[in-house]
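cron nightly-structures :: item 1 of 1
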Amino acid sequence: MIKFLDLPNQYQTIKKEVNSAINEVLESCSFIGGEYVKKFETEFANFCEAKYCVGCGNGTDALEIAIEALQLPPGSDIIVPANSFIASSEAVSRSGHNVVFCDVSRSNFTLEITDLKRKITSRTAAILVVHLYGQPCDMDEINAIIEGTNIKIIEDCAQAHGAEYKGRRVGSLGDVAAFSFYPGKNLGAYGDAGAVTTNNNDIAVRAKMIANHGRIDKYNHEFEGRNSRLDALQAAVLSVKLTHLEKWTDRRIEIANLYRSHLEHISDVTAPKEERYARHVYHLFVIQTNSRNKLAEFLKEEGIEVGVHYPIALPNLQAYRRFHKKEKFNYDSLEKSVLSLPVGEHLSDEEIVFVCEKISKFFA
């Protein structure tokens, strides 16, 4: 079996470090807040080249907290890409704003610039850019569109830990950013966890207060917030794993290049494009093929785990059909052709070549 994700294998490679970190927290009995959370927040802010990091309970909370911290006018329009996990759009609606779906590029799955220009109106308060699959959006293009406006940029970095745009890390490119540390992410906790990053002190302070019942001091609640805190056990695990992330990311990039070199001769397979401005971190390696379903079944029969991210475009989900008029999106066709191949530091070169040989065999 060639596994799509192998967390047990990853744990074995860092077992002593992780167990030691967990034991330190257990010995301290400091489970909420404290030195381990502050340590990771500082480390992750530095990693993202951002001034501030606020840990929270999960990636969806991070998005909602980031949106709320911007203090946008109630009922504002926020533009969201049509291809993402529902958390991207869900966070907008649950924060009291209106989702406006934007098309995505067929080549890199990020916001399609021409459609983005069409979707901006006087009601647009923010653009939620999703660095999907680990590919950063073209931030210069997006910033050029909103120049001279008060439109905010919210980065959804849930799949892009360590990704770079023109040498700058995601998480520091907009007004505020949200990260997920769900266990399967490139940087994953051993449970749910998330973070908000920003270079704006006011946004950082407000995000911290929102995540902690609207307070800084214990009983001084300035407004109603929520309970969404990064716990010390998860912070300690994340601090350990952060020291390995660059090595793991380099391996993902090596695997992506190996896939490309072995699949480029197959006319019905389009490998993901890595833009010249980007460091793509390959949370997922997503190919496109007109034979997606049959190829997926064939690979599973050959002992190769694959996935589909995402099988239904967000505007086509039942959750949104009654709120949005039917539009034609690139992703209406992409949702039938995308297939995620195994990628991760747990895989050997030989396994990647084996996957490519099976794909070649299928098309032959």
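cron nightly-structures :: done
The radius of gyration is 21 Å.
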